[in-house]
TrEMBL record:
PANTHER family in the cross-refs: ARGINASE/AGMATINASE, GUANIDINO ACID HYDROLASE, MITOCHONDRIAL
Protein name: Agmatinase
Record key words, sorted: Hydrolase, Metal-binding
Family label: Belongs to the arginase family.
Amino acid sequence: MTTQPQFLTKIKQSLCPPGNGVFTVNTAKERKAALHQALYGQTDNIEALWSESLDTLTTSSKAVILGIASDCGGGILRGANWGPLFVRSTLLANYPQINAFDLGDVRVIPHLLHDKYLNQPTISNCRKALYQDPESKLAVSPLTITEDVLHDFYALYPDKGIFGIGGDHSISYPLTKTYLQAKKAQGKRCAIIHFDAHTDLLVERLGIDLCFGSWCTHILDDLHEHNHLIQIGIRSSGKPKEHWESTFGVRQHWAHEIRENGVAPVIESILAQLKEQAIDELYVSFDIDALDDAFASATGTPEPDGLTPDEAMAILTSLAAQYPITGADMMEIAPFTDSSGKGAISSETTLKVGAEISAFLIEQINQ
């Protein structure tokens, strides 16, 4: 088992300060500086300040933020790699009282997804670039780094919970997989509450099995039962609800059901299922496109006829009143992407509702 000193050494290599997960030279330099000023009270020597802060992880809050600034697993409109920087900044501006330890960002080489897709010479070159050591044993791709770091995190800090900020939704693969495996080892029965316009239940997309459209499929066996994946807000699918539920054994609540019947029956149904199946804890994975595009258009795949923020919050608050939320993520916010024609207003609106939901989930992890 990895010891705490070994883990701290690993994350000081595999991660970087909050906001620095996007590899840039000058782009968004001022935004990164503003985030660092808010977090550390200065803009100089951030690497050293962040590294020193990691030594206080043991005594920190239960909620721990991890940014994964990768959109390599997406495939429609890109730009979700800026999510961790912008969501953090909005959280700090709108919810200054928020209590969460910021672990930093995964170090992202923007061309990579998972180490299993790479040959050994490429892995060696990337290890040289990231760690100045081609013989290093550390992972180099964002999904693999995330999984590696979080396996150790949960082993060392079983009472803490990760709030992941993406990035495209492929990132939820390592976030949920490590969570579910850790909770199983603790004897906990957990459900994944997945808000999304899309099912993300492809087996593969263009030959790639781990991506924004397929990550759910590959965590099903880490659940006690496949129907412990509960999907809310689905509406953009080439196949009907019956196909997904019968093929994969999941449970879905489509957006039109809420439109037609209101949110109360969906809440009642989910709570009844959780009780019947003796669920202990919840993980919430929130793709911002679960919301109607009138509220969340700064994303790679905005969709009409979705949930309102009030409906999403009604579901979350009702679940949280009866079940602990011990892990969560916010995905697919792409601040520079505008499908609405409203420019900056689109980004601000999306970030505002994304931060509201994120703040609530972080607060719940801290309970």
